[in-house]
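Retry 2 of 3 after timeout on previous attempt. Resubmitting structure tokens to design endpoint.
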């Protein structure tokens, strides 16, 4: 609770612009135009916003949950600022990655300073992608925060979708 987090994410929908972050020690910064295609803009718009935030707050590291478009923004931020990058795979099944995405994943995982995965299957698949990748199974107290973010976000999405269906 003594640590503050800034989360940079795609806007995805116009309604998300006014959503309140359910985690008290995190602030969400949306980038994009409120369209589903915003995820494709996230590497560049996310880099721009994260770099601006980093100049203000001087972060200790950047953290991407899942090897995704956000991780690409993290890699670009690392290259621009030298900020260390942690990628958490968060239950991704890397063994079923298509060959076209395999090169991109390999690039993301090998450029991260640290990759965290929760199970042996993730470790095996990530290591198969690149011999340089060594997954960690624990990031200490940060595990609780990652889980809190996941549960709060999934609760928010479920609540939002439930209200839309009414």
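Retry 2 succeeded. Sequence:
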């Amino acid at each position: 609770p003594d640590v503050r987090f800034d989360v940079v994410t795609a806007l995805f929908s116009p309604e998300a612009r006014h959503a309140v972050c359910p985690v008290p020690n995190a602030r969400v910064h949306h980038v994009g135009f409120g369209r589903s295609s915003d995820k494709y803009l996230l590497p560049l718009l996310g880099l721009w916003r994260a770099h601006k935030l980093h100049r203000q707050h001087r972060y200790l590291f950047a953290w991407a949950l899942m090897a995704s478009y956000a991780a690409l923004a993290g890699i670009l931020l690392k290259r621009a600022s030298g900020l260390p990058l942690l990628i958490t795979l968060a239950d991704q099944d890397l063994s079923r990655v298509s060959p076209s995405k395999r090169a991109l994943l390999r690039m993301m995982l090998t450029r991260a300073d640290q990759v965290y995965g929760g199970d042996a299957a993730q470790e095996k698949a990530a290591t198969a992608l690149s011999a340089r990748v060594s997954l960690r199974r624990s990031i200490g107290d940060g595990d609780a925060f990652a889980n809190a973010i996941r549960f709060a976000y999934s609760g928010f999405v479920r609540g939002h979708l439930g209200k839309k269906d009414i």
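Attempt log closed. Strands lie at 5-10, 26-31, 62-65, 85-88, 114-116, 135-136.
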